[in-house]
Amino acid sequence: MISNYVKKGYIKSPVKKQYNAEQIASLFFITLVKKVLSMENIEKLFRIQEETADKQTAYNSFCEEFEVTLSALFDTHIIEPTFIDQGDDGKKILHSTVTAVAHVIYLNQWFDDDK
Question: Which of 28, 50, 93, 100 lies 20 to 30 Å from 36 when distance is taken between CA atoms?
């Protein structure tokens, strides 16, 4: 599956069969988000990210938002997005994506516990 992502240009080719941190971060993001978005829309998210922030900043923002959202869902706190009020559409889309993924994870956990 990873080689398909490379062939389609979602991530860069590995160097000497080794992936760097940026490629692994992209794979991590794809793995989580493909549960709720098509690869076409994930590719759009990558394009938005490239226009608004460097890869490191984008990945850190994703991780922070994901941790806050998961914590809020599993600890039953109100979700307080980390940057939704800053007016940036890319950040709002990231928040919505992370919220959707977190809800899918929460529901799967609930169904697994309810066997």
Answer: 50
- Quote the pLDDT of residue 13: 92
- Tell whether the model's pLDDT for residue 73 goes beyond 60: yes
What global pTM score does this model have?
Answer: 0.69
Distance separating alpha carbons of residues 60 and 56, to the nearest angstrom: 6
Burial of 108 (C-beta count, 10 Å sphere; 0-12/13-18/19+): exposed
Domain residue ranges in the chain: 2-113
The count of C-alpha atoms lying within 13 angstroms of the C-alpha of 70, restricted to the half-sphere facing its C-beta, is 13
pLDDT in tens, 84-110: 555 677 777 888 888 888 888 887 787
Q: Is 101 exposed, middle or buried (0-12, 13-18, 19+ CB in 10 A)?
A: buried
Return the residue matching tokens 């994506």. Answer: 97
